[in-house]
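Work through what follows:
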Amino acid sequence: MVRHRVCTGGGRCEWFIKAPDARLRAGIGPYRGFRARAGVPQDRLVLPSGRVSLLIGLGGELRVGGGGTTAGAGAGAGTARHTSVVSGLHTRARVLGHGGELHGVELALAPWAAYRLFGGASLAELGDVLTDPEDVLGARCRTLGERLADAPGWAERFALLDETLLAWTADAAPAHTVAPAVLEAWRLLHQAQGHMRIGEVADRTGWSLRHLESRFREQIGLTPKRLARVLRLRRAVGELTAGHGPAHTAAVCGFFDQSHLGREFNALTGMPPGRWLAAGGTENAAWITG
């Protein structure tokens, strides 16, 4: 069943959301179709998510950096424009925007699922990078985009995504599967929401720390330590937006103290927690998860 949501904050937009086929759900979040009709340029400060994002555009262009209407990380930088983008794991917030209209569908992928779907391409090369999906997936991404554009509605588009992603998964070579120790390390870090010593993670996988760091970066996109920082940030964002104070948030998220939380938040978002909250946060971003 396709869920339909309409939002009005910052301009008109619609979401069309559906869970993927049950066989895909372990590694792929809900499909998110979107149509933004703000009529005026829109910018968002998008935080690191710990997910690989594949956005297939059906209309309009996504603007990366340099929008100028959102203060913070990336503002004032050079601007790149994309119809479709793939974003690897990143460790710093980005300014993303559009010129007033944007239409497409986004897939949020666990990095181990992306590694398989992308044919074993090194996710380290996608770390902190946005690029055209054809650079990673080749012509099959353009073909998928054309078929999605031709589909009569969102139910048909989501069915096409199920069919296509199941086929890509079935066609993936065994060598393009993430190593069990890397997958276990990813699971441990997510379970602990980043609050776990990396040495303990390595011990529990049975690999040396150096070997784990090398293979993890290749197959996930960041080192375990950098991913842990992103996961702690995501938990801190959740605590702060739920109304908990900085002292409580620092304690439950594994920061040494409130000052440590502030330094990490500033390093990863470009602004301190109080300023980010005063600006309304980014959790209402309607057209990309980050």
Observations:
- The CA atoms of residues 119 and 173 lie 7 Å apart.
- The chain is about 40% helix and 20% strand.
